[in-house]
Amino acid sequence: MRPLTDDETKVLFEKLAKYIARNIIHLIDRPDEPYCFRLQKDRVYYVSERNMRRATAIGRKNLVSLGICFGKFSKTGKFRLHITALQYLAQYAKYKVWIKPNGEMPFLYGNHVVKAHIGRVTEDIPEHQGVVIYNMADVPLGFGVSARSTVDMRKVDPTGIAVFHQADNGEYLREEDALF
């Protein structure tokens, strides 16, 4: 495991800022103990510094995973968030969308969220901004990118796409081979 370079850190924080905005500071400066981001085989892990120091005794080839996988870098240098980061995205999310029970299964199967499935949304969501998707019982189901602003979302027809799908809890089953 190695620390992220300045370019990698910038790309990671830009992606996280789409979902949690200025709450990124809460990920690093935690009251319980300091956490950091580390890179292992193109995957970014969020790990406590205490556990990171313990892992230095394990060789890079033998280390499979450490901490929580936030996502991975593609070969072109772009960063893709994984569903394993949902716990922290949901905790610090700035924009949220709640979907009705009839919209949960289509979303968990990997489909976009249409307006007819939306129960409620936070106010002032801009277009193409990261949102966390919840069911009506406030359980985080996944995350995506808003297709329209909140104002435009109210005007679109019921079959119009409101949120583009990025990741959902169903990926634990569909992508279990490539997830970790």
Task: Explain what this protein looks like in three dimensions.
By secondary structure, the chain is α+β, with helices and mostly antiparallel strands. Helices cover 31% and strands 30% of the residues. The chain has 8 helices and 11 strands. It has helices at 6-20, 24-28, 49-55, 86-92, 101-108, 150-155, 171-174, 176-179, and strands at residues 2-3, 35-40, 43-48, 68-73, 79-81, 96-99, 113-114, 118-121, 130-135, 140-146, 161-168. The strands form 2 sheets. A 6-stranded mixed sheet has the order 7-11-10-9-6-8. Strands 1-2-3-4-5 form a 5-stranded antiparallel sheet. The protein is elongated. The two termini are 15 Å apart.
Summarize this entry quickly.
With 180 residues, this protein is of the alpha+beta class. It has 8 helices and 11 strands. β2 and β3 (43-48) form a beta hairpin.
Task: Please give the structural blueprint.
Layout: E1 2-3, H1 6-20, H2 24-28, E2 35-40, E3 43-48, H3 49-55, E4 68-73, E5 79-81, H4 86-92, E6 96-99, H5 101-108, E7 113-114, E8 118-121, E9 130-135, E10 140-146, H6 150-155, E11 161-168, H7 171-174, H8 176-179
Parallel strand pairs: 6-9
Antiparallel strand pairs: 1-2, 2-3, 3-4, 4-5, 6-8, 7-11, 9-10, 10-11
